[in-house]
């Protein structure tokens, strides 16, 4: 939804990079305790799913921050005075 008097925000550079990309086998040294804790919290079935969900959440957080920054200075009363 675009607010009155505002242009629709272009997808962030982060969003464009995260699209449907191919998967590639990688090897990382990660704390098993952190992965297990995150897996339980997120309800993920595998360590890979846990890492993907966590990375998705980081990207989403960036999108929220960017979207919120666009709202700075917006006259909120104008939106609701219809």
Could you characterize what this model shows?
This protein has 82 residues and is mainly alpha-helical. The protein has a domain at 31-80. 57% of the residues lie in helices and 0% in strands. It has helices spanning 13-18, 32-42, 47-71, 76-80. The longest helix is centred in the C-terminal third of the chain and has 25 residues, at 47-71. The chain is elongated, with a radius of gyration of 18 Å. The protein starts with 12 loop residues before the first helix and ends with a helix.
Name its key features.
elongated; 82 residues; 57% helix; mainly alpha
H/E topology pattern: HHHH
Q: How many H/I helical runs?
A: 4
Largest sheet: none
Shape: elongated
Q: How confident is the prediction overall: mean pLDDT?
A: 81
Helix content: 55-70%
Measure the end-to-end span.
16 Å
Tell me what portion of residues adopts beta-strand conformation: under 5%
Estimated structural class: mainly alpha
- Alpha-carbon Rg, integer: 18 Å
Uncertain parts: none
Annotation, overall tally of beta strands: 0
Give the SSE map.
Layout: H1 13-18, H2 32-42, H3 47-71, H4 76-80
Concise overview:
This protein is mainly α and 82 residues long. 57% of the residues lie in helices and 0% in strands. It has a domain at 31-80.
């Amino acid at each position: 939804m675009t607010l009155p008097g505002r242009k629709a925000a272009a997808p962030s550079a982060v969003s464009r990079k995260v699209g449907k990309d191919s998967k590639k086998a990688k090897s990382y040294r990660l704390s098993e305790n952190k992965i297990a804790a995150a897996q339980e919290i997120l309800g993920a079935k595998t360590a890979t799913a846990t890492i993907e969900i966590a990375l998705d959440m980081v990207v989403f957080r960036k999108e929220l921050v960017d979207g919120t920054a666009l709202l700075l200075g917006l006259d909120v009363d104008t939106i609701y005075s219809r």
